[in-house]
Amino acid sequence: MLAIGRKENWDLKETEQVTLISGLAHVLSTVIIGVLLGLIGIELNTHIEHFTHVIAPSILILIGLYFIRQHYVHHHFHLENQKITGKPKSKIIGALVIAMFLSPCLEIEAYFLMAGAKGWWLLTIISLMYSLITIAGMLFWIRFAYKGLLKLNWHKWEHSAGLISGGVLIVTGILSFFIY
């Protein structure tokens, strides 16, 4: 959002508004898929005795390994190579909202599956926590990065995201073997 906002000469308020709208689309698609997976988790837990103890943690570990593997085979696009200037603002925002809706956070989905085994109360808590943390985090990072207060190597962080997500999923899966 920040890169597009800067390319389009949006002020901080406009950039935050577009981030909020796009973030809500991203959260909505993630929670929809998460609740569906949670329903599967509820059903699996009633029919498979070892679901919460063995299968769900194994799924977390496998997804973590997948994200680490994808880190080494995934290719990123670069905004500098894309032509977006001259497009109407509404089309740019519409494209961002659609793109964010169609890119749910797959890293969190395994947690919804595990939460389903515990019931609706945990699915609701995870949905609310994910929504709040995601939207607040996006707005926080936009505000600080827009003002130039964060001088991080975003390109490096972007390329390391798969390793970080994969590692967190693997550790969570291993811990789940002992917690549940």
Structure, explained:
The model has no long low-confidence stretch (mean pLDDT 82). The chain has helices at 2-7, 12-47, 51-73, 89-101, 106-116, 120-146, 154-179. The chain is elongated. It is mainly alpha-helical and 180 residues long.
Layout of strands and helices, then pairs:
Layout: H1 2-7, H2 12-47, H3 51-73, H4 89-101, H5 106-116, H6 120-146, H7 154-179
Helix pairs in contact: 2-4, 2-5, 2-6, 3-5, 3-7, 5-6
Labels describing this entry:
0% strand, single chain, elongated, 7 helices, 180 residues, 79% helix, mainly alpha
Structure in a nutshell:
The protein has 180 residues and is mainly alpha-helical.
Largest sheet: none
SS element count, helices: 7
How many beta-strand elements? Answer: 0
Low-confidence stretches: none
Instruction: Give me the Rg, rounded.
Output: 18 Å
